[in-house]
Specification:
Strand order of the largest sheet: 1-2
Shape: globular
CATH topology: Endonuclease III, domain 1
CATH class: Mainly Alpha
Oligomer: single chain
Largest sheet: 2 strands, parallel
Helix content: 40-55%
Distance between the termini: 33 Å
CATH superfamily: Hypothetical protein, domain 2
């Protein structure tokens, strides 16, 4: 009789969620392209389930040129209209326009800081914050670091970067380890 892995309750034991949870969620990311991908996907996730985004992730990658910020920053109305007609992604005009706006702002941050990684990790003092939540109910929707991140991103012209979206981004990109303590991934990515 094999033992089942204990995962964070939010996965609901869904295969898409399990793979994402086991391989990506909470793993510290320092690659600018990957950080940009999570920033864009978290903006599209606003008001929707993460599972919806995961199921469409490959479609997003194709539609948004592999999350190449330089290309996205140059999208014109023809390309935006093409995206609005793409049934494989979330066809929300505000979110699609925000992706273009965010690509431009992302490139400005890279120019100023040398990398987006250097900029975004400053909000957690360049170290993953490791929490010790016993249950999913204890996990907050935001914290002071996501408040600061949101405020600064907005000041730099980013859209769809409220504190809750920023906190989801922090969780996804490993700026915070919010795996519950009973989850098998908790200690695997615990750097304390």
């Amino acid at each position: 009789m094999g033992t089942e892995k204990i995962r964070c309750a939010w996965t609901g034991n869904n295969e898409f969620n399990n793979v994402y949870h086991d391989k990506e969620w909470g793993v510290p990311i320092h690659d600018d392209k990957k950080l940009f991908e999570f920033l864009i996907l978290d903006a599209f996730q606003a008001g929707l389930s993460w599972l919806t985004i995961l199921k469409k992730r490959e479609n997003f990658r194709k539609a948004f040129d592999g999350f190449n910020a330089e290309k996205i920053a140059k999208y014109n109305q023809t390309k935006i209209d093409e995206l609005l007609n793409n049934e494989g992604i979330i066809r929300n005009k505000l979110k699609i326009n925000a992706a273009v706006t965010n690509a431009k702002a992302f490139l400005e941050v890279k120019k100023e800081f040398g990398s987006f990684d250097k900029y975004i990790w400053q909000f957690v003092d360049y170290n993953t914050i490791t929490n010790k939540w016993k249950t999913i109910k204890e996990v907050p929707a935001s914290r002071k670091e996501s408040d600061s991140m949101s405020k600064d991103l907005k000041k730099r012209g980013f859209k769809f970067v409220g504190t809750t979206i920023c906190y989801a981004f922090m969780q996804a990109a490993g700026l915070v380890n919010d795996h519950t303590t009973d989850c098998f991934r908790y200690s695997e990515i615990d750097f304390d």
